[in-house]
Specification:
Elements lengths: L2 E4 L9 H15 L4 E6 L6 H11 L5 E4 H4 L6 H11 L6 E5 L2 H9 L3 E4 L3 H12 L6
Parallel strand pairs: 1-2, 1-4, 2-3, 4-5
Helix pairs in contact: 1-6
Length: about 140
């Protein structure tokens, strides 16, 4: 696997403590030369879009892909493809983390590895296993 793509709403927009833990985990993933992106069905403008873009502006992730900008929403293949293209990685080499089971299912149907996010600790263990990332987050 060469890339980790993460949904924003319901995954990264939670309490401040989980946000810190996510940032530490993403940094560990990136230190392994694995591309990281946020893929959100958000509009291209507004407060939510700006909050999401901050993750890229601050260098936490490599790319932010908003459905409002690309014209496609998850679970459509083109949305996932937009994120993998932003990282210059084949779709089949990407892991998608989302809190919506339909998006996870679609990601798998499109050749990605899908992780259903229900709790940070569970998701972190799955990411650490897939990318061989040691440590506690």
């Amino acid at each position: 696997m060469q890339a980790l793509i993460i949904d924003y709403a319901g995954v990264l927009d939670l309490d401040p403590e989980d946000k810190k833990r996510w940032i530490a985990l993403i940094e560990a993933v990136r230190s392994q030369d694995i591309g990281t992106a946020i893929l959100s069905n958000a509009e291209s403008s507004g407060e939510t879009a700006e909050k999401i873009r901050e993750w890229e502006f601050r260098g936490i992730v490599d790319a932010v892909v908003l459905s409002g900008e690309i014209g496609w929403e998850k679970p459509e293949r083109a949305a996932f493809q937009g994120a993998s293209n932003a990282l210059d990685v084949p779709l089949s080499d990407c892991v998608m983390v989302d809190d919506d089971i339909m998006n996870v299912r679609a990601a798998v149907e499109h050749g990605m590895i899908g992780i259903l996010h229900t709790a940070f600790d569970r998701t972190a263990v799955e990411i650490q296993t897939l990318f061989d990332i040691p440590g506690e987050f």
